[in-house]
Specification:
Elements lengths: L1 E4 L4 H13 L4 E4 L6 H6 L7 E3 L5 E2 L2 H11 L10 H25 L8 H21 L9 H16 L10 H10 L3 H4 L6
Helix pairs in contact: 1-3, 1-6, 4-5, 4-6
The chain binds glutathione.
The site of glutathione has 14 residues, from helix 3 and helix 4.
Length: 194
Amino acid sequence: MKLYSSPSSPFARKCLVIAHELGLALEVENVSPIGNAELRTHNPLGKVPVLIDDDGAAIYDSRVICEVLNHRSLGRLFPGEDLQRALTLQALADGICDSAVARIFESRRPPEFQHDATMARYMLAITTGLDVLETLVDSFATDPTIGEFAVACALGYLDLRYADLAWRQGHPELARWFADFSTRASLQATIPEG
Ligand SMILES: N[C@@H](CCC(=O)N[C@@H](CS)C(=O)NCC(=O)O)C(=O)O
């Protein structure tokens, strides 16, 4: 199985972390999604990650990839008794990433084309999301689910692209949890770059 990935993508990282946790080896091909016609033949949305299955089928997006990998490996990352909490936590973490990634794209436009209100709206989603995560840390699962892994990938992306945000200030419980959780081999093996 081959994963079209990008070293900075929190969504691709989430898939790599989940594969690592499940003991699955994925061939990784790093690509730039921007203007990538070949990627678009696999995912019409033109986004990474995309998993190419052994039979050639393309699987996207990251939520689907993670769930399929977990299902095939009989993993416990989507536990039935905790499904609503785990999936909602994943949605919150992925949503923070959606806004964080979109804001980076917006910030790379020439200043005269940047839209301040849009930038502010993305930042509000990030900071409000962090505030809610801080209130949820106590409910994080001891046996981590897709939700906890998605949160770790989101925080890792903020460290990569939003160092100035200094998100640990004002979110001490989240910061403590992340420091401990980040020692997992799956997270150490997938530190984002770029
Ligand atoms: N919901 C998607 C989001 C994927 C995504 O936004 N990927 C970004 C890279 S982090 C991308 O490929 N963007 C290219 C584009 O928007 O054209 C997922 O979970 O896989």
